[in-house]
Design a protein that fits this description.
- This protein has 392 residues and is α/β, with parallel strands linked by helices.
- Helices cover 36% and strands 16% of the residues.
- The chain has a domain of 239 residues: Rossmann fold, CATH 3.40.50.
- It has a 7-stranded mixed β-sheet with strand order 8-7-6-1-2-5-14, sandwiched between helices.
- Helix 1 crosses helix 7 and helix 7 packs across helix 8.
- It starts with 5 loop residues before the first strand and ends with a strand.
- The relative contact order is 0.13.
Length: 392
């Protein structure tokens, strides 16, 4: 879908590489510009997760891209980059604000040479403002944005989500902004600057609860495990005799029927939110009396919204996950067989696949230089001078 669109990527960590992978999955030609030591994610991986010394963190977010090594300490390297950017439709970067300007690669300077350039900056808090220079990292922003404070029970500390969902949502919003800007350029002929940051992404994830708060409807975390400060019971995880089930948005009448307990009918409709902890506690006591399979069968019979709480082994084996082909694999010359999540959207009933496995450091430097019009002799000179490097 994005065939013919060239993207130059100065990205690292998760937000940036994930955004560029979305574009690359859709067919864009993404050239990842890396320093001689390689992008951060090549040398770091969550629980020291490496497959034959190859970082899983790198493998999960860099498919379908090409790698080019440029040493920005060399004038020759900067000259190569300027020629590359002059041919690009999109530049995407995830440095701290001000870094690209200091490298003479800021938006105002580059758009003069390439007025059609879409310039996307991904940051922690935005390109300006009082937090401009703060470190922007997922759990820090979960805390700052209120997401951690509204998660968890009343008797426990604020709870962080067990995944880098703010990074990932920031990546999706960055890719969305780029796609919108490309569409706009078709009408105006002009590029623009796109900005996505983690703080905005974290707030956007809370569009519902924060909007309640902004309009005078304060909520409080539940003592009994209602998994939202704003929802009635039941809404959350309940222990069964042998596992856990989640129940969602069920009427008092339905609860009375499925549990065979007339107590629920004594709760007046206008008191359902006020009494949500009492309702939740009553449900928890009843749920503990029988197994997960018992309640699954009964909830299905009474059309109660529910789901088993899966661990990751169960997620991967889940029949709908398998049917959706949400997990894909590819063969890597060093890491071996690698399993990752597939592109999350289908187009014409199909998901984009892997055209290129995550590249080796500088694997495509010579290839990209040739496409930019450098002769073999010029390429050899550039490689010998250290301004650019290849995988050799």
């Amino acid at each position: 879908m994005l065939s013919g669109i060239k993207v130059v990527s100065f990205t690292h960590f998760l937000q940036g590489p994930s955004a560029t992978q979305i574009l690359a999955d859709l067919g864009a030609d993404v050239v990842k510009v890396e320093p001689p030591q390689g992008a951060f994610e090549r040398g770091w991986s969550g629980p020291d997760a490496y497959l034959n010394d190859v970082s899983v963190f790198f493998l999960l977010g860099n498919r379908n891209v090409r790698s080019m090594v440029v040493d920005l300490k060399h004038d020759e390297g900067k000259a190569v980059l300027r020629r590359l950017i002059a041919t690009a439709d999109v530049l995407i970067e995830s440095f701290r604000p001000g870094v690209m300007d200091r490298l003479d690669l800021g938006y105002e300077e580059l758009r003069t040479a390439n007025p059609r350039l879409i310039y996307c900056s991904l940051s922690g808090y935005g390109s300006d403002g009082p937090y401009r220079n703060r470190p922007g990292q997922d759990v820090l922003v979960q805390s700052l944005s209120g997401l951690a404070h509204c998660t968890g029970t009343a008797d426990h500390p604020p709870t962080l989500v067990g995944a880098s969902l703010v990074d990932q949502h920031g990546a999706v919003l960055g890719a969305l902004g780029i796609l919108a800007a490309l569409h706009g350029r078709e009408r105006t002929g002009e590029g623009t600057r796109v900005e996505s940051n983690l703080l905005n992404a974290a707030l956007d994830l809370q569009i519902e609860p924060l909007s309640y708060h902004l309009n005078g409807f304060p909520g409080n975390r539940s003592r009994s495990g209602v998994s939202s400060p704003f929802y009635k019971a039941p809404y959350g995880v309940f222990a069964t005799a042998d596992g856990y089930l989640t129940i969602s948005l069920t009427s008092i009448d339905a609860l009375s029927k499925v549990f065979g307990d007339p107590w629920f009918r004594t709760v007046e409709p206008e008191a359902e939110y006020v009494m949500r902890d009492e309702i939740n506690t009553r449900i928890a006591d009843l749920m503990a009396e029988h197994t997960t399979s018992y309640w699954t069968e009964r909830f299905t019979e009474f059309n109660i919204w529910h789901a088993v709480v899966n661990d990751y082994d169960a997620v991967v084996a889940d029949p709908q996950v398998r049917h959706n082909e949400s997990v894909m694999s590819f063969d890597h010359p060093h890491a071996g067989t690698v399993r990752v999540l597939a592109h999350p959207v289908r187009y014409g009933g199909r998901r984009p696949g892997v055209r290129r496995i995550p590249p080796g450091l500088g694997e495509h430097t010579t290839e990209v230089l040739g496409e930019l019009g450098y002769s073999p002799a010029e390429i050899a000179t550039l490689l010998g001078g250290g301004g650019v490097r290849d995988s050799a």
